[in-house]
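Batch manifest, entry 17 of 40.
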Amino acid sequence: MLDFERCWRATLSRDTRFDGLFYSAVVTTGIYCRPSCPGCPMRKNVRFYRSAAAAQDAGYRACKRCNPDASPGSPEWNLRADVVGRAMRLIADGVCDRDGVAGLAAQLGYTTRHLHRLLTAEVGVGPQALARTQRAQTARILLETTDLRITDVAMAAGFSSVRQFNDTIASVFDRTPTALRDMATSPADHAAGTITVRLSVREPFDGPALLRFLAARAIPGMEEVDTGTYRRSLRLPHGAGAIALTPHPGHVAAQFRLEDIRDLATAIHRCRRLLDLDADPLAVTELLTSEPLMAPLAAANPGLRVPGGADPEELLLCTALRQTMPAPQGTMALAALTRRFGRPLPIPIGRVTHLFPTAQTLAEAPLTDLLPDEAAELLRRIATDLATGDLTLSDGHDRAETERRLMKAGLSGHGAAYLVMRALKDPDVFLAQAPATGRALQSLGQPTGLASTMRRAEHWRPWRSYALMQLWNLHPGDTQIFAPADRTSPRSATLTA
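Output type: C-alpha coordinates
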Protein backbone atom coordinates (compact mmCIF):
# COMPACT_ATOMS: atom_id res chain seq x y z
CA MET A 1 0.00 0.00 0.00
CA LEU A 2 1.18 3.52 -0.76
CA ASP A 3 1.76 5.88 2.17
CA PHE A 4 -0.74 8.70 1.56
CA GLU A 5 1.17 11.31 3.58
CA ARG A 6 4.47 10.69 1.80
CA CYS A 7 2.81 10.74 -1.61
CA TRP A 8 0.90 13.91 -0.75
CA ARG A 9 4.07 15.72 0.38
CA ALA A 10 5.83 14.63 -2.83
CA THR A 11 2.89 15.91 -4.88
CA LEU A 12 2.98 19.28 -3.10
CA SER A 13 6.70 19.59 -3.88
CA ARG A 14 6.07 19.12 -7.66
CA ASP A 15 9.43 17.34 -7.80
CA THR A 16 9.98 15.62 -11.16
CA ARG A 17 12.15 12.98 -9.47
CA PHE A 18 8.99 11.30 -8.17
CA ASP A 19 7.46 10.94 -11.64
CA GLY A 20 6.84 7.28 -12.38
CA LEU A 21 7.16 6.19 -8.75
CA PHE A 22 3.40 6.67 -8.26
CA TYR A 23 0.45 8.50 -9.84
CA SER A 24 -2.10 10.89 -8.34
CA ALA A 25 -5.76 10.80 -9.40
CA VAL A 26 -8.40 13.46 -8.78
CA VAL A 27 -11.87 12.17 -7.99
CA THR A 28 -13.73 15.33 -9.08
CA THR A 29 -12.09 15.63 -12.52
CA GLY A 30 -11.60 11.94 -13.31
CA ILE A 31 -7.98 12.39 -14.39
CA TYR A 32 -4.65 11.02 -13.15
CA CYS A 33 -1.35 12.93 -13.19
CA ARG A 34 2.36 12.83 -12.51
CA PRO A 35 3.38 13.99 -9.01
CA SER A 36 5.04 16.99 -10.70
CA CYS A 37 1.85 18.14 -12.48
CA PRO A 38 1.33 21.88 -11.87
CA GLY A 39 -2.35 21.32 -11.10
CA CYS A 40 -3.48 21.96 -7.50
CA PRO A 41 -6.18 19.52 -6.42
CA MET A 42 -7.73 19.53 -2.96
CA ARG A 43 -6.27 16.91 -0.63
CA LYS A 44 -9.63 15.25 0.06
CA ASN A 45 -10.15 14.60 -3.68
CA VAL A 46 -6.80 12.88 -4.33
CA ARG A 47 -6.14 9.15 -4.64
CA PHE A 48 -2.74 7.55 -5.28
CA TYR A 49 -1.90 4.56 -7.50
CA ARG A 50 1.28 2.57 -8.05
CA SER A 51 0.93 2.41 -11.83
CA ALA A 52 -0.74 4.24 -14.69
CA ALA A 53 -2.54 1.01 -15.49
CA ALA A 54 -4.07 0.89 -12.01
CA ALA A 55 -5.33 4.47 -12.35
CA GLN A 56 -6.83 3.68 -15.74
CA ASP A 57 -8.45 0.53 -14.39
CA ALA A 58 -10.08 2.64 -11.67
CA GLY A 59 -11.71 4.78 -14.37
CA TYR A 60 -9.33 7.74 -14.61
CA ARG A 61 -7.93 9.15 -17.85
CA ALA A 62 -4.50 10.65 -18.47
CA CYS A 63 -4.03 14.36 -17.76
CA LYS A 64 -3.68 16.35 -20.99
CA ARG A 65 -1.34 18.80 -19.28
CA CYS A 66 1.40 16.57 -17.84
CA ASN A 67 1.08 13.38 -19.95
CA PRO A 68 1.64 10.98 -17.01
CA ASP A 69 1.85 7.93 -19.28
CA ALA A 70 5.14 9.29 -20.67
CA SER A 71 6.89 9.62 -17.28
CA PRO A 72 9.97 7.49 -16.45
CA GLY A 73 9.31 3.97 -15.20
CA SER A 74 9.61 2.94 -11.58
CA PRO A 75 13.13 1.92 -10.45
CA GLU A 76 11.50 -0.60 -8.10
CA TRP A 77 11.16 -3.23 -10.82
CA ASN A 78 14.92 -3.39 -11.39
CA LEU A 79 15.62 -3.48 -7.66
CA ARG A 80 13.19 -6.32 -6.97
CA ALA A 81 14.22 -9.86 -7.91
CA ASP A 82 10.91 -11.51 -6.94
CA VAL A 83 8.20 -12.76 -9.30
CA VAL A 84 6.43 -9.40 -9.53
CA GLY A 85 9.63 -7.56 -10.41
CA ARG A 86 10.52 -10.13 -13.06
CA ALA A 87 6.98 -10.02 -14.47
CA MET A 88 7.04 -6.23 -14.77
CA ARG A 89 10.33 -6.34 -16.67
CA LEU A 90 9.00 -8.99 -19.07
CA ILE A 91 5.75 -7.08 -19.68
CA ALA A 92 7.77 -3.96 -20.50
CA ASP A 93 9.76 -6.00 -23.04
CA GLY A 94 6.51 -6.91 -24.82
CA VAL A 95 6.21 -10.57 -23.79
CA CYS A 96 2.44 -10.23 -23.20
CA ASP A 97 1.88 -8.83 -26.69
CA ARG A 98 3.97 -11.55 -28.34
CA ASP A 99 3.11 -14.62 -26.26
CA GLY A 100 0.02 -13.61 -24.28
CA VAL A 101 -0.50 -13.85 -20.54
CA ALA A 102 -0.08 -17.63 -20.73
CA GLY A 103 3.37 -17.19 -22.29
CA LEU A 104 4.33 -14.67 -19.62
CA ALA A 105 3.24 -17.03 -16.83
CA ALA A 106 5.09 -19.94 -18.45
CA GLN A 107 8.36 -17.97 -18.50
CA LEU A 108 7.94 -17.23 -14.80
CA GLY A 109 6.91 -20.78 -13.90
CA TYR A 110 3.48 -19.87 -12.47
CA THR A 111 -0.14 -20.33 -13.48
CA THR A 112 -1.90 -17.37 -15.08
CA ARG A 113 -4.32 -17.20 -12.15
CA HIS A 114 -1.57 -17.01 -9.53
CA LEU A 115 0.39 -14.45 -11.57
CA HIS A 116 -2.71 -12.26 -11.88
CA ARG A 117 -3.24 -12.49 -8.13
CA LEU A 118 0.37 -11.49 -7.37
CA LEU A 119 0.36 -8.50 -9.73
CA THR A 120 -3.03 -7.27 -8.55
CA ALA A 121 -1.88 -7.37 -4.94
CA GLU A 122 1.34 -5.47 -5.67
CA VAL A 123 0.53 -3.17 -8.61
CA GLY A 124 -3.25 -2.91 -8.51
CA VAL A 125 -4.00 -4.60 -11.85
CA GLY A 126 -3.19 -7.79 -13.73
CA PRO A 127 -0.83 -8.34 -16.69
CA GLN A 128 -3.46 -7.64 -19.35
CA ALA A 129 -4.14 -4.15 -18.01
CA LEU A 130 -0.41 -3.41 -17.74
CA ALA A 131 0.15 -4.51 -21.34
CA ARG A 132 -2.88 -2.46 -22.47
CA THR A 133 -1.35 0.69 -20.98
CA GLN A 134 1.92 0.02 -22.77
CA ARG A 135 0.11 -0.48 -26.08
CA ALA A 136 -1.71 2.84 -25.63
CA GLN A 137 1.57 4.69 -25.02
CA THR A 138 3.15 3.08 -28.10
CA ALA A 139 0.15 4.11 -30.17
CA ARG A 140 0.42 7.65 -28.92
CA ILE A 141 4.09 7.82 -29.93
CA LEU A 142 3.29 6.54 -33.41
CA LEU A 143 0.39 8.96 -33.84
CA GLU A 144 2.49 11.94 -32.81
CA THR A 145 5.76 11.09 -34.59
CA THR A 146 4.83 9.27 -37.81
CA ASP A 147 2.50 9.63 -40.75
CA LEU A 148 1.36 5.99 -40.61
CA ARG A 149 -2.29 5.33 -41.38
CA ILE A 150 -4.47 4.96 -38.28
CA THR A 151 -5.11 1.29 -39.04
CA ASP A 152 -1.37 0.64 -39.35
CA VAL A 153 -0.75 2.38 -36.01
CA ALA A 154 -3.31 0.10 -34.35
CA MET A 155 -1.64 -3.05 -35.65
CA ALA A 156 1.89 -1.78 -34.97
CA ALA A 157 1.02 -0.95 -31.35
CA GLY A 158 -0.23 -4.49 -30.76
CA PHE A 159 -4.01 -4.03 -30.80
CA SER A 160 -6.03 -6.93 -32.17
CA SER A 161 -8.59 -4.69 -33.91
CA VAL A 162 -9.14 -1.07 -34.87
CA ARG A 163 -12.26 -0.97 -32.70
CA GLN A 164 -10.27 -2.06 -29.64
CA PHE A 165 -7.64 0.54 -30.52
CA ASN A 166 -10.20 3.37 -30.79
CA ASP A 167 -11.90 2.40 -27.53
CA THR A 168 -8.59 2.25 -25.65
CA ILE A 169 -7.33 5.60 -26.94
CA ALA A 170 -10.63 7.26 -26.06
CA SER A 171 -10.61 5.72 -22.58
CA VAL A 172 -6.97 6.50 -21.74
CA PHE A 173 -6.52 9.91 -23.39
CA ASP A 174 -10.12 11.17 -23.81
CA ARG A 175 -9.33 11.91 -27.45
CA THR A 176 -9.73 10.17 -30.76
CA PRO A 177 -6.59 8.93 -32.54
CA THR A 178 -7.03 11.68 -35.15
CA ALA A 179 -7.23 14.34 -32.43
CA LEU A 180 -4.03 13.02 -30.83
CA ARG A 181 -2.24 13.31 -34.15
CA ASP A 182 -3.62 16.80 -34.84
CA MET A 183 -2.58 18.06 -31.39
CA ALA A 184 1.05 16.91 -31.61
CA THR A 185 3.19 19.77 -30.29
CA SER A 186 5.54 19.72 -33.28
CA PRO A 187 5.68 17.93 -36.62
CA ALA A 188 8.01 15.00 -37.00
CA ASP A 189 11.46 16.19 -38.15
CA HIS A 190 13.05 12.79 -38.56
CA ALA A 191 14.63 11.29 -41.65
CA ALA A 192 12.53 9.14 -43.94
CA GLY A 193 11.94 5.68 -42.56
CA THR A 194 12.79 6.59 -38.96
CA ILE A 195 10.82 7.27 -35.78
CA THR A 196 12.09 9.88 -33.33
CA VAL A 197 11.08 9.66 -29.66
CA ARG A 198 12.00 11.66 -26.55
CA LEU A 199 12.87 9.23 -23.75
CA SER A 200 12.08 10.76 -20.37
CA VAL A 201 14.80 10.73 -17.70
CA ARG A 202 14.74 10.98 -13.93
CA GLU A 203 17.36 13.62 -13.14
CA PRO A 204 20.18 14.09 -12.36
CA PHE A 205 21.45 12.18 -15.37
CA ASP A 206 25.11 11.89 -16.44
CA GLY A 207 24.79 11.20 -20.16
CA PRO A 208 28.45 11.89 -21.03
CA ALA A 209 29.64 9.22 -18.55
CA LEU A 210 27.31 6.69 -20.17
CA LEU A 211 28.71 7.51 -23.61
CA ARG A 212 32.29 7.11 -22.32
CA PHE A 213 31.46 3.67 -20.92
CA LEU A 214 29.81 2.52 -24.14
CA ALA A 215 32.54 4.00 -26.35
CA ALA A 216 35.27 2.11 -24.47
CA ARG A 217 33.49 -1.20 -25.21
CA ALA A 218 32.01 -0.46 -28.65
CA ILE A 219 32.38 -3.14 -31.35
CA PRO A 220 33.21 -1.56 -34.74
CA GLY A 221 30.58 -2.28 -37.36
CA MET A 222 27.91 -2.90 -34.71
CA GLU A 223 28.30 0.14 -32.43
CA GLU A 224 29.80 3.61 -32.48
CA VAL A 225 29.89 6.75 -30.35
CA ASP A 226 30.33 9.93 -32.35
CA THR A 227 29.68 13.61 -31.55
CA GLY A 228 27.60 12.88 -28.47
CA THR A 229 25.46 10.13 -30.05
CA TYR A 230 25.52 6.38 -29.49
CA ARG A 231 24.48 4.24 -32.46
CA ARG A 232 24.06 0.50 -32.71
CA SER A 233 22.26 -2.27 -34.53
CA LEU A 234 19.65 -4.25 -32.66
CA ARG A 235 18.01 -7.62 -33.21
CA LEU A 236 14.33 -7.46 -32.24
CA PRO A 237 11.50 -10.04 -32.12
CA HIS A 238 10.13 -9.20 -35.58
CA GLY A 239 13.23 -8.02 -37.44
CA ALA A 240 16.38 -5.91 -37.41
CA GLY A 241 16.65 -2.37 -36.13
CA ALA A 242 19.15 0.45 -35.77
CA ILE A 243 19.08 3.09 -33.05
CA ALA A 244 20.74 6.44 -32.37
CA LEU A 245 20.64 7.80 -28.81
CA THR A 246 21.66 11.36 -27.94
CA PRO A 247 21.53 12.43 -24.26
CA HIS A 248 20.22 15.93 -23.51
CA PRO A 249 19.33 17.69 -20.25
CA GLY A 250 16.06 16.14 -19.10
CA HIS A 251 15.68 13.58 -21.88
CA VAL A 252 17.37 11.35 -24.46
CA ALA A 253 16.58 11.84 -28.15
CA ALA A 254 16.10 8.38 -29.65
CA GLN A 255 15.90 7.67 -33.37
CA PHE A 256 14.71 4.24 -34.50
CA ARG A 257 14.95 2.62 -37.92
CA LEU A 258 12.95 -0.64 -37.76
CA GLU A 259 12.22 -3.40 -40.25
CA ASP A 260 8.93 -4.09 -38.46
CA ILE A 261 7.22 -1.25 -36.63
CA ARG A 262 5.64 -3.72 -34.18
CA ASP A 263 9.06 -3.75 -32.48
CA LEU A 264 8.87 -0.09 -31.42
CA ALA A 265 7.69 -0.68 -27.83
CA THR A 266 10.32 -3.39 -27.29
CA ALA A 267 13.05 -1.19 -28.81
CA ILE A 268 12.10 1.73 -26.54
CA HIS A 269 12.15 -0.52 -23.49
CA ARG A 270 15.58 -1.93 -24.37
CA CYS A 271 16.99 1.55 -24.90
CA ARG A 272 15.69 2.62 -21.51
CA ARG A 273 17.35 -0.42 -19.94
CA LEU A 274 20.58 0.18 -21.85
CA LEU A 275 20.84 3.74 -20.52
CA ASP A 276 19.32 2.94 -17.09
CA LEU A 277 16.79 5.74 -17.51
CA ASP A 278 14.39 4.46 -14.84
CA ALA A 279 16.97 4.56 -12.04
CA ASP A 280 16.37 6.55 -8.85
CA PRO A 281 19.52 8.71 -8.56
CA LEU A 282 18.14 10.44 -5.47
CA ALA A 283 18.01 7.21 -3.46
CA VAL A 284 21.39 6.03 -4.75
CA THR A 285 23.17 9.30 -3.97
CA GLU A 286 21.57 9.54 -0.53
CA LEU A 287 22.99 6.17 0.48
CA LEU A 288 26.42 6.45 -1.16
CA THR A 289 27.14 9.91 0.26
CA SER A 290 26.66 8.49 3.76
CA GLU A 291 29.89 6.45 3.45
CA PRO A 292 33.23 8.33 3.65
CA LEU A 293 35.02 6.75 0.67
CA MET A 294 32.10 6.99 -1.73
CA ALA A 295 30.73 10.36 -0.53
CA PRO A 296 32.96 12.66 -2.64
CA LEU A 297 32.55 10.49 -5.75
CA ALA A 298 28.75 10.28 -5.47
CA ALA A 299 28.46 13.98 -4.71
CA ALA A 300 30.54 14.84 -7.78
CA ASN A 301 28.65 12.40 -10.05
CA PRO A 302 25.08 12.18 -8.70
CA GLY A 303 23.56 11.12 -12.03
CA LEU A 304 25.87 8.20 -12.84
CA ARG A 305 24.03 5.19 -14.28
CA VAL A 306 24.73 1.47 -14.64
CA PRO A 307 24.66 0.70 -18.40
CA GLY A 308 22.44 -2.24 -19.23
CA GLY A 309 22.38 -4.62 -22.18
CA ALA A 310 20.23 -3.98 -25.25
CA ASP A 311 20.50 -7.65 -26.26
CA PRO A 312 21.27 -10.04 -23.36
CA GLU A 313 22.37 -12.98 -25.55
CA GLU A 314 24.66 -10.74 -27.59
CA LEU A 315 26.19 -9.34 -24.40
CA LEU A 316 26.75 -12.88 -23.10
CA LEU A 317 28.56 -13.97 -26.27
CA CYS A 318 30.73 -10.85 -26.27
CA THR A 319 31.59 -11.28 -22.59
CA ALA A 320 32.49 -14.94 -23.13
CA LEU A 321 34.99 -13.98 -25.83
CA ARG A 322 36.44 -11.05 -23.92
CA GLN A 323 37.20 -13.15 -20.84
CA THR A 324 39.69 -15.23 -22.87
CA MET A 325 41.45 -12.36 -24.68
CA PRO A 326 43.00 -9.00 -23.70
CA ALA A 327 40.65 -6.07 -24.19
CA PRO A 328 41.99 -4.61 -27.50
CA GLN A 329 42.33 -8.02 -29.16
CA GLY A 330 38.90 -9.06 -27.90
CA THR A 331 37.26 -6.00 -29.45
CA MET A 332 39.08 -6.57 -32.76
CA ALA A 333 38.00 -10.24 -32.77
CA LEU A 334 34.35 -9.30 -32.12
CA ALA A 335 34.50 -6.78 -34.97
CA ALA A 336 35.89 -9.48 -37.30
CA LEU A 337 33.12 -11.91 -36.28
CA THR A 338 30.51 -9.22 -36.92
CA ARG A 339 31.83 -8.42 -40.40
CA ARG A 340 32.15 -12.08 -41.44
CA PHE A 341 29.13 -13.74 -39.85
CA GLY A 342 26.76 -10.88 -38.98
CA ARG A 343 23.79 -9.92 -41.13
CA PRO A 344 24.27 -6.60 -43.01
CA LEU A 345 21.75 -3.88 -42.22
CA PRO A 346 19.51 -2.87 -45.16
CA ILE A 347 20.48 0.77 -44.54
CA PRO A 348 23.62 1.50 -42.46
CA ILE A 349 23.38 4.15 -39.75
CA GLY A 350 26.63 6.06 -39.42
CA ARG A 351 29.41 3.45 -39.32
CA VAL A 352 27.03 0.78 -37.99
CA THR A 353 26.64 -1.72 -40.80
CA HIS A 354 25.88 -5.17 -39.33
CA LEU A 355 23.94 -7.06 -36.70
CA PHE A 356 26.01 -9.20 -34.34
CA PRO A 357 25.89 -12.88 -35.41
CA THR A 358 23.16 -15.05 -33.89
CA ALA A 359 23.99 -17.86 -31.47
CA GLN A 360 22.93 -20.39 -34.12
CA THR A 361 25.32 -18.86 -36.66
CA LEU A 362 28.27 -18.85 -34.25
CA ALA A 363 27.57 -22.43 -33.15
CA GLU A 364 28.03 -23.57 -36.76
CA ALA A 365 30.72 -21.10 -37.88
CA PRO A 366 34.45 -21.94 -38.42
CA LEU A 367 35.51 -19.85 -35.43
CA THR A 368 39.10 -21.13 -35.39
CA ASP A 369 39.67 -19.18 -38.61
CA LEU A 370 39.44 -15.97 -36.57
CA LEU A 371 39.99 -16.89 -32.92
CA PRO A 372 42.52 -18.71 -30.74
CA ASP A 373 41.49 -22.26 -29.89
CA GLU A 374 40.48 -21.50 -26.28
CA ALA A 375 38.31 -18.55 -27.26
CA ALA A 376 36.73 -20.43 -30.17
CA GLU A 377 35.91 -23.44 -27.98
CA LEU A 378 34.26 -21.38 -25.24
CA LEU A 379 32.32 -19.21 -27.69
CA ARG A 380 31.06 -22.23 -29.64
CA ARG A 381 30.01 -24.04 -26.45
CA ILE A 382 28.00 -21.08 -25.13
CA ALA A 383 26.53 -20.32 -28.56
CA THR A 384 25.42 -23.95 -28.88
CA ASP A 385 23.78 -23.87 -25.45
CA LEU A 386 21.92 -20.68 -26.40
CA ALA A 387 20.86 -22.04 -29.79
CA THR A 388 19.48 -25.27 -28.31
CA GLY A 389 17.76 -23.54 -25.41
CA ASP A 390 19.91 -25.25 -22.77
CA LEU A 391 21.01 -21.77 -21.65
CA THR A 392 18.76 -18.72 -21.54
CA LEU A 393 19.22 -15.18 -20.29
CA SER A 394 15.82 -13.74 -19.42
CA ASP A 395 14.26 -11.33 -16.94
CA GLY A 396 11.88 -14.15 -16.11
CA HIS A 397 14.63 -16.15 -14.39
CA ASP A 398 16.02 -15.79 -10.91
CA ARG A 399 19.23 -13.72 -10.97
CA ALA A 400 21.25 -15.91 -8.60
CA GLU A 401 20.25 -19.08 -10.43
CA THR A 402 21.09 -17.47 -13.78
CA GLU A 403 24.54 -16.59 -12.45
CA ARG A 404 25.15 -20.20 -11.43
CA ARG A 405 24.03 -21.45 -14.85
CA LEU A 406 26.34 -19.01 -16.62
CA MET A 407 29.32 -20.23 -14.59
CA LYS A 408 28.37 -23.84 -15.27
CA ALA A 409 28.32 -23.02 -19.00
CA GLY A 410 31.91 -21.79 -18.81
CA LEU A 411 31.72 -18.12 -17.94
CA SER A 412 34.05 -16.87 -15.23
CA GLY A 413 32.68 -15.74 -11.88
CA HIS A 414 33.20 -12.08 -12.70
CA GLY A 415 31.85 -12.55 -16.20
CA ALA A 416 28.66 -14.11 -14.84
CA ALA A 417 28.17 -11.36 -12.25
CA TYR A 418 28.89 -8.70 -14.88
CA LEU A 419 26.16 -10.23 -17.07
CA VAL A 420 23.65 -10.25 -14.20
CA MET A 421 24.47 -6.60 -13.44
CA ARG A 422 24.08 -5.39 -17.01
CA ALA A 423 21.77 -7.83 -18.82
CA LEU A 424 19.42 -8.49 -15.87
CA LYS A 425 19.81 -5.02 -14.30
CA ASP A 426 20.77 -6.20 -10.81
CA PRO A 427 21.60 -3.00 -8.86
CA ASP A 428 23.55 -4.83 -6.14
CA VAL A 429 26.58 -6.44 -7.85
CA PHE A 430 30.13 -5.62 -6.81
CA LEU A 431 33.14 -7.05 -8.68
CA ALA A 432 35.69 -6.74 -5.88
CA GLN A 433 38.41 -8.76 -7.61
CA ALA A 434 38.14 -7.14 -11.03
CA PRO A 435 41.48 -5.53 -11.96
CA ALA A 436 39.68 -2.29 -12.88
CA THR A 437 38.15 -2.16 -9.39
CA GLY A 438 41.50 -2.75 -7.71
CA ARG A 439 43.22 -0.01 -9.70
CA ALA A 440 40.42 2.45 -8.89
CA LEU A 441 40.70 1.71 -5.16
CA GLN A 442 44.47 1.97 -5.35
CA SER A 443 44.20 5.43 -6.93
CA LEU A 444 42.11 6.45 -3.91
CA GLY A 445 44.77 5.16 -1.54
CA GLN A 446 42.63 2.26 -0.33
CA PRO A 447 43.65 -1.36 0.37
CA THR A 448 42.72 -3.73 -2.46
CA GLY A 449 42.51 -7.01 -0.54
CA LEU A 450 39.32 -9.00 -1.03
CA ALA A 451 38.34 -9.05 2.65
CA SER A 452 38.66 -5.28 3.18
CA THR A 453 37.01 -4.46 -0.14
CA MET A 454 34.01 -6.72 0.48
CA ARG A 455 33.65 -5.39 4.02
CA ARG A 456 33.54 -1.81 2.74
CA ALA A 457 31.15 -2.72 -0.07
CA GLU A 458 28.60 -3.95 2.47
CA HIS A 459 27.94 -0.27 3.29
CA TRP A 460 26.79 0.32 -0.29
CA ARG A 461 23.95 -2.22 -0.38
CA PRO A 462 21.54 -2.37 -2.20
CA TRP A 463 23.26 -0.06 -4.69
CA ARG A 464 26.67 -1.73 -5.01
CA SER A 465 26.44 -1.72 -8.83
CA TYR A 466 26.26 2.08 -8.72
CA ALA A 467 29.19 2.23 -6.31
CA LEU A 468 31.14 0.05 -8.76
CA MET A 469 30.33 2.50 -11.58
CA GLN A 470 31.60 5.37 -9.43
CA LEU A 471 34.92 3.56 -9.04
CA TRP A 472 35.18 2.59 -12.70
CA ASN A 473 34.33 6.15 -13.70
CA LEU A 474 37.69 7.25 -12.25
CA HIS A 475 39.41 5.54 -15.20
CA PRO A 476 36.80 5.20 -18.01
CA GLY A 477 39.27 3.57 -20.39
CA ASP A 478 40.12 0.73 -18.00
CA THR A 479 37.84 -2.09 -19.17
CA GLN A 480 39.62 -5.07 -17.59
CA ILE A 481 37.18 -6.95 -15.36
CA PHE A 482 38.55 -10.49 -15.59
CA ALA A 483 41.08 -11.68 -13.04
CA PRO A 484 43.40 -14.62 -13.77
CA ALA A 485 41.95 -18.02 -12.88
CA ASP A 486 38.67 -16.35 -11.92
CA ARG A 487 36.14 -19.14 -11.33
CA THR A 488 34.31 -18.15 -8.14
CA SER A 489 31.25 -15.99 -8.00
CA PRO A 490 31.78 -12.53 -6.46
CA ARG A 491 28.48 -13.05 -4.62
CA SER A 492 29.87 -16.07 -2.79
CA ALA A 493 33.04 -14.33 -1.60
CA THR A 494 33.14 -14.11 2.19
CA LEU A 495 34.68 -11.42 4.35
CA THR A 496 37.40 -13.85 5.44
CA ALA A 497 38.32 -14.96 1.91
